[in-house]
């Protein structure tokens, strides 16, 4: 496991388009994933301990964001040949087991991860209604700590601000996690 931190948010950068397969077999595009107020793109996987620590929290936070007009999508870009836990079949199992309330897509060629500049899992990129990047930061201050610890909800607060104003917070703390497993 190689620990990586996300780069500083390049505010205004356009969200790349994509068309990827979901765990339910359907193909989704960027615009189909977006809500009327914006889009949160999450690069996650099944095996990373940083992602495992927040899976239930993601479901709760996504519900709040969707109510505010933010669409949410998760993309898995790791090489499943080297990391079998990240196979499409295991993605399907995790999505059901954890009750994912967002499309969980596979990026088999890793072109989408490269287009977004994804570096780790989890990596969160928040866009406004014009598909302009406004947030590139962490979920919250918990990291891999116990889920009962109360912390500032960086991602939810940032994306609610994006939904309300179209702009993200000035201060953003990078996300950290396992490096993307490139082919």
UniProtKB/TrEMBL annotation:
* Gene Ontology molecular function terms on file: antioxidant activity; oxidoreductase activity
Query: Where, if anywhere, are coiled coils annotated?
Result: none
- InterPro entries of this UniProt entry? AhpC/TSA, PRX-like1, Thioredoxin-like_sf, Thioredoxin_domain
Instruction: Name the source's superkingdom.
Output: Bacteria
The Thioredoxin domain is annotated at 9-161
Gene3D superfamilies for this protein? Glutaredoxin
One Pfam entry name: AhpC-TSA
- The positions making up the signal sequence are none
Entry-linked CDD domains: PRX_like1
Which PANTHER family is this protein grouped with?
OS07G0260300 PROTEIN (PTHR43640), THIOREDOXIN-DEPENDENT PEROXIREDOXIN (PTHR43640:SF1)
Q: What name appears for this protein in its UniProt entry?
A: Peroxiredoxin
Organism of origin is Cycloclasticus pugetii
């Amino acid at each position: 496991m190689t620990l990586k931190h996300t780069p500083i948010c390049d505010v205004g950068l356009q969200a790349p388009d994509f068309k990827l397969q979901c765990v339910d077999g359907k193909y989704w595009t960027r615009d189909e994933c977006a809500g009327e107020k914006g889009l949160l793109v999450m690069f996650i996987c099944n095996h990373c301990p940083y992602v495992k620590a927040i899976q239930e929290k993601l479901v709760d936070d996504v519900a709040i964001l969707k109510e505010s007009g933010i669409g949410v999508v998760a993309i898995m870009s790791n090489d499943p040949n080297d990391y079998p836990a990240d196979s499409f079949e295991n993605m399907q199992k995790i999505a059901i087991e954890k009750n994912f309330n967002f499309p969980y897509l596979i990026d088999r060629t890793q072109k989408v991860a490269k287009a977004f500049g994804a570096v780790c899992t989890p990596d969160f990129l928040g866009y406004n209604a014009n598909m302009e990047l406004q947030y590139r930061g962490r979920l919250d201050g918990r990291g891999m700590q116990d889920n009962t610890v109360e912390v500032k909800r960086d991602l939810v607060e940032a994306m609610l601000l994006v939904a309300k104003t179209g702009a993200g917070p000035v201060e953003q703390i990078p996300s950290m996690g396992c490096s993307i497993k490139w082919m």
